[in-house]
Amino acid sequence: MENSSHPSYFNLTMFVNIGSYRYPAFVFCLLLFAMIVSANLVIILVISQQRTLHEPMYFFIVCLSINSLYGSAGFFPRFLMDLLSDAHLISRPACYTQIYVIYTYALYELTILSVMAYDRYIAVCHPLHYHSKMTSKTVFKLAAFAWICPSFLMTTIMYLSIRLPLCSNKIPKVFCANWSVVKLSCVSTVINNIVGLLVATTTVFLPLAYVLYTYLRILLVCRRCSAEFKAKVFQTCLPHTISFMIYSITGFCDIAISRYNLEDLNPFVVVILSLEFVVIPPVLNPFVYGLKLPEIRRHILKMLPWSRTVT
């Protein structure tokens, strides 16, 4: 199978180094997955049920939660199964499907956060024109852009990766990653590298530059405003800033370690760093928005049993 240019299965070799830790790891990750699903469903439920929260900012928060569920569903079930399995083979179609889901999740996160930055920019810098600019039609177009553009770009990358002849089937990670598969190629990957660089520039560096630009403009506007206005802006913009910083750091960690020979690094460090971007944002985002935005926090507290008793 390893000598075939199109192996039927890939071998996720990093699981071998987990050893006896896999059982406590399974319990921990199962609880983590349950927490991600529960927390994000609560955010979606609260915003969808409360008419006062039917605004662009909260709609984009729902998009973030949906994306968290999407990315977690593409990673955790297979990962949990592999933790309890003695063989860590994944079929070629399943591997490429996992790559597509995890990478589109990553790109969706960036585009949604960029759209949220635009929403906050209009709300703070052009408050009198906010409702005329952020109409339902505009919100729909922005959401469609955030979902469709990454899907198209990732489909192009997947097409280039799938057609590569491979000289091995060993992937030194705990999940399928595009760059890890491309490195197994028997032929030149110049085209893959160029397209990958263009996609990275389009979906990573441009959103990063745009978010930094919008927040610079917001800071300049706040400098001339009252303390009350600054506090309100800080309250609504802080969760977005935290989410963007968390995702940028975790995404950078995965990109950085993918450029090294993973078999020469400490396996536990590799596993932890490579899992951060698919685990930490889905866990923290609902808590950041649920705790920092008073409107969402108030409605969540109303759902709790003891709050009803007090009332």
Radius of gyration: 21 Å
Shape: globular
Number of helices: 11
For the biggest sheet, the summary is: 3 strands, mixed
- Provide the succession of SSEs: EHHEHHHEHHHHHH
Assign the structural class, choosing from mainly alpha, mainly beta, alpha/beta, alpha+beta, or little secondary structure: mainly alpha
**Regions with little confidence, pLDDT below 50 for 5+ residues:** none
Q: What is the count of β-strands?
A: 3
Mean pLDDT: 84
Tell me what portion of residues adopts beta-strand conformation: under 5%
First and last CA, distance: 66 Å
- The proportion of residues forming helix, as a percent range, comes to over 70%
| Order of the strands making up the biggest sheet | 2-1-3
